[in-house]
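Task 17 of the worksheet. Students: predict the tertiary structure of the chain below and write it out as structure tokens. Keep your answer in the requested format; marks are given for formatting as well as content.
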Amino acid sequence: MSVLKILLKRNKSWIAAAIFTALLSNLSQMIYMYYVGELVNKIETRAAIGRAFIILLAGFIVSNAITQILNQYVGRYSAERMAHTLRMGYARRLIHKTGGTGGDSAEQSESSAGRKGLDTATAMSVVQNELAQADGYLSGAFFDVTGMLITGILATVFLMFQNVYLTFVILIPTLIILVYVIFSSRKLSGIVTAAQQEKSRMNKTAYSVVHAFLAVKTFDGEALCKEAYDSSVKAWTRQQAKLGRRSALYNSLSGILSRVPLLLLLLAGGYMVVSGKILMGTLIVFLNLQKSLTQSIMNLPSWLSGFKVFTTNLARIEIE
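Model answer:
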């Protein structure tokens, strides 16, 4: 079973709670926005606004605020639970492997000293690289991306019931932009993976030198080790610089492109309001919920490449 499946299985109750609160929060926001649009429509058509309508709208405003806070709390706590499971699972794995070598004979211990040193170097490299970055992604971005996907799906379905034509005005350019996002994310994930590989080589070289320092010193291996370390540092630096340049370029372009659906919505929606096909309140609902579909597009290249790196890191981690 993959590490991600293990993390999901061991925290399934909290993950289910996080998904439920995300759904509840989004539904509350959409109902709230619907009633705001209805209020604008009533003002535009000079229809009567009853006390019951005002109380209902106020209730949805309060419920929207409460569910938003609850969604953030449960999502963050669930992410931290998964990160804790990952950290403790890896720690148990290391303890188990260490405890399993206690009964070896002296001859076996001497013959496997080099292998144990390599295992130690690999374990410490994983702690500094794969484990640290996977832990950070879980704590900081995993449920943000999940919540964004849930919001996008629910907003699309909700807007379809409001006005199919305006929904496609938003959806078609958004899907075209997503093609670009997927392309740029693959490019970034390749660069990030290459940088991580160089960082792993750096750490393995450093810990191997520390573990076998006397042997390195005896056989004058300092220059060779330093050359290998410096080579990895330079390669890692080049990859990091390349990643920074590409991220700036791709995110800038996706940020510009993400404004296209809004411009098209203003043009098409404005024409429909002027021509009397829809009321102003309907356009306001679309303008507010349109952000749920497109506001995060400018960050999607980094998020998708981050998820790719996250799954790659988990593939290199063994937990119990």
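Marker's comment: Residues 51-99 form the longest helix (49 residues). The chain has a mean pLDDT of 76.
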